[in-house]
Specification:
The chain has 785 residues and is an alpha+beta fold. The protein is built from 38 helices and 15 strands.
């Protein structure tokens, strides 16, 4: 093909009326852009590339979707051909453009050439173009031959150029780039579009495995570094500065304006390093109700134009109204909730998510977000209720959000960690730049299944993918703590602090790490976090654990009551019920049966969530209330048949302890065999209430004591002492010393027994003297002398 001023032509003429702009990836007629979706456009270009040749359906599948495709390609091809014919006004019975070859495929039959020449264009090109014969043209045999040769040459050159330009388009973005989405400029005067369109665009673009948007957490963090409030409006200028600070590739600016009764949406992508325009899109909506559809259209075109493959665009392009909600008002409430959450926290935005659901009861994403907010504030039962509803409606979300809802359902509702693991693995493979599946694996799945090394690996992946995602540091620090690598845990929290990342949970982590290191000064410093919003009750709660760990039970009771009061003031009943369940367990372990029963009953009156029921059931068993304990175990098994913690920790531990109460130690050991795979795991109750970890090991140790097998009992209690990072300040960490002394005494190792008893009594040197187990320990130690 000839050139004009050194540039290859980027347009081809199809028939008499239509023109393909290869650079803009558009089909036009008389200068007007015609709407043709990405897959039909891709197929049209493929047919034009092979003009006059039979293109089989198998060739189309391989070219458009690839060989290993799992979708209904027959219907997809039929639909694409139908849309091509609609836009070209092509009659399938008397085709001018696309001919169907029955049972085989399709053939493009219209002439293909370059558009009409412009003033000053190369005359050779002008001759070649005019030499293409029109339908019905006549001439001498020599003239016909020359015209045919010229036509063939031009057609071949045109198709070759088309193929080269299409197949060698340089992507404007790569799968290593990140994007910042600015707020839309709204000149319509209608506030329903404020914030809503940016949220909708983000949901649409986040479907793409190719593109990566800067996370909201990173935007908030960057705004803080800029000295701006975290809820600052993301104007084009603010977004550009965020783009530069985060090393991102592009800023997306959106706009909406009214044109009579219609709405015009625009989208512009600018390179952050150069300021060049990478892409511009525009769409119109006849009514307000059509705006979300128009937004989805320009998002899809943008994805295609900046370099995403048609394979992923076809597979991951759920229409926005289906991925979120067809209601602008509901999406407005949803968007406002996320905006407020940045500055006011999870509890403050719950009413807004509820409002979004009231407007559209089928809004799956709003249910999922509401579940996340409830989980953030410790209301796990309410979280499970919202996530269950989102799961019912998961057909109304994008693939990425479907992964999020599926994994959340596995973890929070069924508790099936094997399914959660599978979902997160596929999610991470499909969206390799998304940190959330790695955060789920690091913070929940792997700790529950006792795979702490993998938890560390996944936590590091979270930070590598998004260094401003604070949850990554939190889960990684816990994984290190559970492995006993306290220096690495401290270093992880230090890295977060250097990035000026801070959440209330960090104060609790610092307190626990200082406790495990025996550093009283740092414990006192971390306890100052009690003045931090969101940390008050949890610091008080952990202080109660530490006091009980050293036998100062009266003070522990007062601190527990303080923590519970704070939780109830914040209207967080489930949190308060967890505090009561933990207190019931402490009383039971220390021998105060009546107080254990009272507190377990109170905990259940506040909430009957899974972890509270487990704590109460175990406390009842410690207090000798076998029937109540068994009834709760039955209820857990009935309501959570798939739950990993219930199957492999909660139920065997409860039933094993009940069997011990009945003098059936061998039966207890048989029941506890189920806990072997995950006995070192940190179950849900450990995550939500900081109790329950290694309880199966403790009960097994007691069973061996009851069977007079001291060596085996000692091995079990030593496991607890060897994994202090998992137990932290749970009183079984202290009591394991006493039980180890009893095991050694039983096996006849008096020296080891005295040493273990001494360790326990030194730890309890300031303990309340009226604690039953303390009295027993002192008497047993005296008899060893």
């Amino acid at each position: 093909m000839t050139q004009k001023q050194g540039q290859t032509h980027d347009c081809l003429k199809l028939g008499e009326d239509f023109e393909v702009d290869l650079r803009a990836y558009q089909l036009r007629r008389a200068g007007r852009v015609l709407k043709l979706e990405p897959t039909p456009m891709e197929l049209l270009l493929f047919l034009v590339e092979h003009r006059g040749e039979l293109v089989t359906r198998d060739q189309i599948v391989e070219r458009i979707w690839g060989k290993d495709v799992f979708l209904d390609t027959d219907n997809s091809i039929n639909g694409a051909i139908r849309k091509i014919r609609q836009v070209l006004k092509d009659d399938p019975e008397q085709p001018r453009f696309v001919e169907t070859v029955s049972g085989k495929g399709y053939r493009f039959i219209a002439p293909v050439g370059e558009p009409e020449t412009q003033v000053g264009q190369d005359r050779t090109h002008d001759f070649a173009h005019r030499a293409i014969p029109a339908q019905g043209s006549t001439g001498t045999p020599l003239g016909k031959h020359l015209l045919a040769v010229a036509a063939t040459a031009v057609a071949v050159l045109a198709v070759a150029t088309l193929a080269y330009v299409y197949l060698h388009r340089k992507p404007k973005l790569t799968d290593k780039d990140t994007i910042v989405v600015a707020d839309f400029t709204n000149t319509t005067g209608d506030p329903v579009f404020d914030g809503t369109l940016r949220q909708g665009l983000a949901v649409q673009l986040e479907q793409s495995p190719f593109l990566s948007l800067i996370s909201e957490e990173r935007i908030k963090h960057t705004l803080s570094l800029m000295g701006q409030p975290v809820d600052t409006r993301l104007t084009s200028e603010v977004a550009h500065e965020i783009c530069e600070r985060t090393g991102s590739a592009a800023v997306l600016d959106g706009s909406i304006t009214s044109l009579g009764t219609r709405y015009v949406l625009g989208l512009r992508a600018r390179s952050c390093p150069t300021g060049d325009i990478l892409d511009q899109e525009q769409a119109q909506a006849a009514r307000k109700e059509d705006v979300l559809n128009a937004l989805g259209q320009i998002a899809s075109r943008f994805r295609s134009h900046v370099g995403e493959s048609l394979v992923t665009l076809q597979k991951y392009d759920t229409p926005l109204a289906e991925a979120t909600t067809p209601s602008l008002e509901a999406l407005k409430a949803y968007s406002a909730a996320w905006k407020l959450q940045a500055s006011s926290g999870s509890a403050a935005v719950i009413p807004l998510f509820k409002r979004a659901i009231e407007i559209d009861p089928q809004f799956a994403l709003a249910y999922a977000a509401l579940g996340r907010m409830y989980d953030d504030i410790g209301e796990s039962a309410l979280a499970a209720e919202s996530v269950s509803k989102a799961y019912e409606l998961r057909g109304r979300v994008s693939d990425r959000e479907r992964f999020f809802i599926g994994a959340s359902y596995d973890m929070d509702v069924t508790g099936n960690m094997e399914k959660a693991h599978q979902t997160c693995e596929v999610w991470a493979q499909t969206y390799p730049r998304d940190p959330i599946p790695h955060a789920f694996l690091s913070g929940i799945v792997y700790p529950i299944t006792a795979n702490y090394q993998k938890a560390v690996q996944e936590g590091n992946k979270v930070i590598a993918l998004d260094p401003s995602f604070v949850v990554g540091y939190w889960t990684l620090a816990y994984a290190y703590e559970e492995l006993g690598q306290l220096g690495d845990a401290e270093n992880t929290l230090r890295q977060a602090a250097e990035r000026k990342l801070e959440i209330p949970d960090f104060w609790v982590q610092r307190y626990d790490i200082a406790f495990l290191k025996g550093d009283a000064a740092r414990m006192a410093a971390a306890a100052l976090g009690e003045g931090k919003p969101g940390a008050d009750e949890w610091i008080a709660y952990h202080e109660a654990f530490v006091l009980a760990y050293s036998g100062q039970l009266q003070q522990a009771r007062r601190m527990t009551q303080h923590a519970e009061d704070l939780a109830l003031q914040a209207e967080q009943r489930e949190e308060a019920s967890l505090f009561e369940a933990a207190a019931a367990l402490r009383e039971g372990f220390l021998g105060n049966a009546a107080e254990a029963r009272r507190r377990a009953t109170k905990a259940l009156a506040l909430s009957n969530n899974r972890d509270v029921e487990y704590g109460a059931a175990f406390a009842f068993a410690l207090a000798g209330e076998n029937s109540r304990s068994k009834a709760l175990a039955d209820e857990l098994e009935k309501h959570f048949p798939e739950d990993t913690c219930v199957k492999f920790s909660y139920s065997p531990s409860i039933r094993g302890l009940v069997a011990l109460n009945q003098g059936k130690a061998a039966k207890a050991l048989n029941l506890l065999e189920a806990t072997d795979p995950y006995e070192l795991g940190a179950p849900h109750s450990s995550f939500h209430g900081f109790f329950g970890a290694l309880y199966p090991i403790y009960v097994r140790g007691e069973a061996y004591l009851a069977m007079k097998e001291g060596v085996k009992a000692a091995a079990e209690f030593q496991k607890i002492l060897d994994h202090r990072g998992i137990v932290a300040s749970d009183p079984i960490g202290a009591l394991a010393r006493l039980q180890l002394g009893r095991a050694h005494a039983l096996s006849g190792d008096k020296a080891q027994a005295k040493s273990a008893y001494s360790d326990f009594l030194n730890l309890w040197k300031d303990a309340d003297t009226d604690i039953p187990i303390f009295k027993q320990a002192k008497g047993e130690y005296a008899r060893l002398q």
